[in-house]
């Protein structure tokens, strides 16, 4: 799907869902070299705080950027700014829905601001914030 800025509108919403797995966490840990014991690294540590290991925030952020790149705008763009608050941990096995809503369009700069909300399968908002993206101009073929 390919969208240009003049096809976007305030209030436009896009969503994606994903269930995070043990393998997702392990791959993220390997790529980032983040071996915090609250992930899978040390069961004796994370069990002091949680019933199950948590998913690195970077994976939830990846779902947010997936919505941007695949759905809204679903075209060539660059993430300029993100402000996110992680209210609750995301655990392995959680189904997370990332929802983005356009709240501002600056056509002069080709900037789009989107409200971000991520919910788990119980409907708890686990991440909230906003992103600003730059919509790149269409290239003629």
Automatic annotation (TrEMBL):
InterPro entries: HotDog_dom_sf, UPF0336/Enoyl-CoA_hydratase. GO terms for molecular function: (3R)-hydroxyacyl-[acyl-carrier-protein] dehydratase activity. This is MaoC family dehydratase. It comes from the Bacteria. GO terms for biological process: fatty acid biosynthetic process.
């Amino acid at each position: 799907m390919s969208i240009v800025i003049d096809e976007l509108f305030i209030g436009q919403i896009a969503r994606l869902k994903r269930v995070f797995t043990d393998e997702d966490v392990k791959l993220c840990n390997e790529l980032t070299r983040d071996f915090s014991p609250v992930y899978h690294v040390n069961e004796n540590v994370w069990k002091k705080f949680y019933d199950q290991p948590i998913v690195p925030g970077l994976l939830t952020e990846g779902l947010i950027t997936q919505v941007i790149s695949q759905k809204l705008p679903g075209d060539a763009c660059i993430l300029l700014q993100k402000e996110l608050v992680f209210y609750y941990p995301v655990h392995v096995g959680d189904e997370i829905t990332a929802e983005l809503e356009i709240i501002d369009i600056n056509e002069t700069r080709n900037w789009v601001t989107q409200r971000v909300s991520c919910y788990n399968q119980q409907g708890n908002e686990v991440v909230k914030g906003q992103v600003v993206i730059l919509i790149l101009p269409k290239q003629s073929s």
